[in-house]
Structure formats: C-alpha cells, structure tokens
Design a protein that fits this description.
The chain has 264 residues and is mostly helical. It contains eight helices and two strands; from the N terminus they run ααααββαααα. The longest helix is centred in the last third of the chain and has 36 residues. The chain starts with 6 loop residues before the first helix and ends with a helix.
Length: 264
C-alpha cells in the first residue's frame, strides 16, 4: 500500500526525537567548550558546563514538543473529567524530582548564607566557608556560595517556569493520551537532568570541603549520613532523566503494561 501521508508530515514524523537528541548533542559540545576556558578556574568551568548542558537539554525537549505532530482529525471531547498536569508526569519520579528541586534551592541558600564574605572582593565572595578547628580559624573550599551558585539560580529561574508552562500546555492541549504522556515525561526528564546534575555537583563540593578539615566530628557525620546518600540519589536521577529525554517510553512502566495487555 502506498504511503498517502503528506510529505511535510512524513518529514516531521520523527522531528521531535531528533530535536531532543540534538539538544543533548549541542549541550555536550557547549559543555566541552566551556570546560576548556583558560581564564576561569576549574570549579567555575564545571558549573558553566553543567548549566549549559542542562539548559540545552531543556531547550531541545521544548523544541521537540513544538515539532510534535498534532492529530489532524477532529478530537472528541466526550469526557467531562478535567486534565491535570499531575496525571501526565511520572507518578514516582515526578514528585522526587520536584523535591530535589526544592532541596537544591534550600541547599544553595544555606551555602550562600554560610559562605565567607569579603567586603573588598564582592565579585568573588562566597568561594569558601570559614570554620574553627582546634581553636584555629581556617577556610574550607571550594564552597558553593553565590560565586558558584549564581549560574544555577539563573538556569532554574529560566527553566522552571518554562517547563511548568510546557507541562500545562501539554496536559490541556490536543493529542492522544500516550503522546501527551511521552511529551510530559520528556519535559520532566529534561528539568530533572538540570536539577539533579546541579545538585550533584553542589553536594560533591560541600562533601569535599567538609572532609578537608581535620576536625571531622559533626561535619564528617553530616557528610556520611546526608551528603553521600544525596549524591547517590542524584546519580540515579541523572541517569533516569537522561534516558527519559532520549526515549520517554522506555521508562514508562504503565505504557509498557498497557502494550502488553493489548497484545494479549
């Protein structure tokens, strides 16, 4: 049987996949370029690279959503039940990623508040934290104060409302249920990739700084019981989010169960 679909629809059939993958590819290139900036210290280069990669992933997913083909026939709206955003995002990972986003903001606010302030060097303040060890004052770093966290706050300020708007648009827009779910999962994964990668690096910076001091004590216990498990959780979220951006249906257990049921 001949393919009767218009040529423009055949070209756009997989454009959303290419857009998501291109966003990740461009993010890798941008991160590589930013990581080799010679005039910027290593920790700041890593922050720039992670931020650029996360923003490119979000941009690729949003472009993919814009390129997704909508149904051309009339859509039946017999159901009176309102569509909710929470019904389209991952039921388990969605709340976890949202919680990670909140905890990231709290962590960065705390580290910014505890960072050492140098009135004579305002633009480089917040790089270390001052502590007392055996009666002697010392500084620990690098510390994710404002010097390192400003790009993260900027990225969250841009990506969070944009992704929230996209999820609302997907939930209330046209399309099949599975198509809307795939798009919503991809947006969730992109935002989760940005949040979890930023939090992972912030947690690693805090852990390295706290374990540098010879007065482990409470700081060592805090690192072992809080920051190390949080780092492992963020590693898992980064992997899940990356897979979700590449192939949303690959991690959609409900979709897999529905397909298995249909086959039977």
């Amino acid at each position: 049987m001949l393919d009767t679909a218009p040529p423009q629809y055949r070209l756009l059939d997989h454009a959303d996949h290419y857009a998501r993958w291109s966003g990740l590819a461009i993010g890798i290139v941008a991160a590589q370029a930013l990581s080799t900036l010679g005039d910027v210290e290593f920790e700041q280069r890593v922050v720039f690279a992670i931020t650029a990669f996360g923003l490119c992933a979000v941009a690729g997913v949003l472009l993919a959503d814009a390129l997704t083909l909508r149904p051309q026939e009339a859509v039946r709206t017999a159901s009176l039940a309102p569509r909710l955003v929470r019904d389209h995002v991952p039921p388990r990972m969605g709340p976890l990623i949202a919680l990670q986003g909140v905890s990231l903001v709290i962590l960065l606010v705390i580290t910014a508040a505890t960072a050492s302030v140098d009135p004579d060097r305002v633009f480089v303040t917040g790089k270390v934290v001052a502590t007392t060890c055996n009666g002697m004052r010392e500084t620990l770093g690098p510390w994710p104060g404002l010097y390192y966290s400003l790009p993260t706050f900027g990225a969250l300020a841009i990506a969070t409302p944009t992704c929230a708007w996209a999820l609302r648009r997907i939930a209330h827009g046209p399309g099949e249920e599975q198509q809307r779910r795939d798009r919503a999962w991809a947006v969730t994964g992109a935002w989760g990739l940005l949040v979890s990668s930023q939090q992972l690096y912030a947690v690693l910076m805090v852990s390295v700084a706290l374990t540098e001091t010879g007065c482990a004590g409470v700081l060592g216990a805090l690192t072992f019981w809080v920051f190390y498990p949080l780092a492992l959780l963020n590693v898992f979220t980064v992997v899940w989010s990356l897979v979700t951006v590449v192939a949303p249906r690959a991690v959609d257990d409900e979709a897999a169960e529905d397909e298995a049921f249909d086959d039977e």
